[in-house]
UniProtKB/TrEMBL annotation:
The keyword Cell membrane does not apply. This is Lactonase, 7-bladed beta-propeller-domain-containing protein. Residues 1-16 form the signal peptide. It comes from Roridomyces roridus. Keywords: Signal. It holds the Pfam family Lactonase.
Length: 378
C-alpha cells in the first residue's frame, strides 16, 4: 500500500500546473496575458488582455473572475470580467477618480478604493451585487505639505491595506511619511487618524498584514515598506471595541539592503507575504536606469520578539527596476516585473525554508509593458 502511494505521488508530480498571468503596464503599453508551465518552465506571451486599450497602472483581482484596473492618464477605475485565458472584458462603465495609481477592494466587496500619488487623494466607489462600480466616487484630498527635507513635497498616498477584521483601511502616504487610518462603512470609509512613520523621512509605500488567521496564535501585524530609506516597519495591530491602534514592534525598521546605501540610492517598492505567513519579500529598485534590482527575503519572527523581521537573503530580480511581483497561491513560484527591462522573471521559492532561487527559471523579454505591473495566477 505504501509503495502504491509513493508511485501515485510521483505520477502526480509529473503533471504540469499552468499559471495564467495578467500583466498591466503603465499607459504606454497594453495589458497582456502570459502562461507559465511549472514543469517545463515555459513562459509565453499569450496575447493582449485588453485589445486596443492601453494598460492601467494597477490591477486588483478579488476573485478568479473579476478584475479592477486604474487608468492614471484618464483618471478612471474600471471593472472587468476575467476569462480563463486572462482576457479582460469590460463590464459597466469607468468611474472618474483622482489620478489613481492603486486600486483595492474591501473583504465583502462592498466598495473599491483608490490612492492617488500625484494628487494626494483617496477615493472610494460603491460596488453593486455584481461587483460593478456605482458612480460617483467619494473623495478625500490631503492638502498638507511635507515639512521635512525629502524628495517628496506633498501628500502622496500610494496604496491601501484592509485589516484582517475587514473594519479598517490603512493608506501609506509616501510624501507625508504617515499611515492614514480609516474606518470601513457600508459603502465608503471614514478618516480616523494619522500614524507617523517611526523614522522620517522614510516614504511608506505598500503594506501587507501577517499573523492571524494564517498563523492562528499570532496577533495581526502590519508590515510597511519604506521607499526612501529602503526599510520595512512592523506595527502590531491592537484592537479595542471601537478602534484599532498601531504599535511599532522593535526600536527600528529593518533594512531591505545588504549595506544601507543612503537616501534614494536604491528605492524599495513592493511587499509580499508567503501564503503560510512565515516569510516576507521586498523588492529593491536600483536608482541607475538599467542596473539590476533585487529581492530581499525576511523571516517573520513572533510578535514577542525584539525584532519583527530577520533578513535571510538578497537575490537579483532578473532585470532592472522591479516595481511589482507576485507569489502563486502555493508559495512555489515568484513572478517579478522588471519595468526598465520590459521583462517578467519567474523564480522558484520554498515557503517552508524561505529559500529563493538565485537565478530565474524563465524570463519573458521583449513584451510591451511599462513601469508598473501586477500579476494574477490561476
Amino acid at each position: 500500500m505504501l509503495q502504491s502511494l509513493v508511485l501515485l505521488s510521483l505520477l502526480g508530480a509529473s503533471f504540469a500546473t499552468i499559471h495564467t498571468l495578467i500583466i498591466s503596464g503603465d499607459s504606454s503599453g497594453g495589458a497582456f496575458s502570459a502562461r507559465f508551465d511549472d514543469v517545463t518552465h515555459e513562459l509565453t506571451h499569450t496575447g493582449m488582455s485588453i485589445p486596443g486599450v492601453n494598460g492601467g497602472n494597477w490591477i486588483a483581482l478579488p476573485s478568479i473572475s473579476t478584475a479592477y484596473l486604474t487608468f492614471r492618464n484618464a483618471s478612471v477605475v474600471a471593472a472587468y470580467d476575467v476569462s480563463p485565458s486572462g482576457a479582460l472584458t469590460a463590464v459597466g462603465s469607468p468611474v472618474v477618480v483622482p489620478v489613481p495609481v492603486y486600486v483595492g477592494v474591501t473583504h465583502n466587496s462592498s466598495f473599491l478604493f483608490t490612492a492617488s500619488y500625484p494628487s494626494g487623494a483617496i477615493a472610494t466607489v460603491p460596488l453593486d451585487q455584481n461587483g460593478i462600480p456605482i458612480p460617483p466616487a467619494s473623495t478625500t484630498t490631503f492638502t498638507a505639505t511635507d515639512p521635512l527635507p525629502s524628495p517628496q513635497d506633498q501628500s502622496r498616498p500610494h496604496s491601501g491595506i484592509v485589516d484582517v477584521s475587514g473594519q479598517y483601511l490603512i493608506f501609506p502616504d509616501d510624501g507625508l511619511d504617515l499611515l492614514h487610518v480609516y474606518k470601513i462603512g457600508a459603502t465608503s470609509a471614514t478618516f480616523l487618524y494619522d500614524e507617523p512613520s517611526y523614522v522620517r523621512p522614510a516614504g511608506p509605500r505598500h503594506g501587507v498584514v501577517s499573523g492571524y488567521p494564517v498563523v492562528r496564535d499570532w496577533v495581526p501585524r502590519l508590515h510597511v515598506v519604506n521607499e526612501e530609506d529602503n526599510s520595512v516597519e512592523t506595527w502590531i495591530m491592537h484592537y479595542s471595541p471601537n478602534n484599532m491602534s498601531l504599535i511599532m514592534q522593535g526600536s527600528s525598521a529593518v533594512s531591505t539592503l545588504a549595506v544601507p546605501a543612503g537616501m534614494n540610492v536604491s528605492t524599495a517598492a513592493e511587499l509580499l507575504i508567503s501564503p503560510n505567513g512565515k516569510y516576507l519579500l521586498a523588492s529593491n529598485r536600483d536608482a541607475s536606469l538599467f542596473a539590476e534590482g533585487s529581492i530581499a527575503v525576511f523571516r517573520i519572527n513572533p510578535p514577542t520578539a525584539e525584532t519583527a523581521l530577520t533578513r535571510i537573503s538578497i537575490t537579483t530580480s532578473g532585470g532592472a527596476n522591479p516595481r511589482s511581483m507576485s507569489l502563486d497561491r502555493t508559495g512555489k513560484w515568484l513572478a517579478v516585473a522588471n519595468g526598465n527591462s520590459n521583462s517578467t522573471a519567474m523564480f522558484s521559492f520554498d515557503q517552508e525554508t524561505g529559500l529563493l532561487a538565485r537565478t530565474a527559471v524563465a524570463n519573458l523579454t521583449g513584451v510591451r509593458g511599462g513601469l508598473i505591473f501586477h500579476y494574477y495566477f490561476r
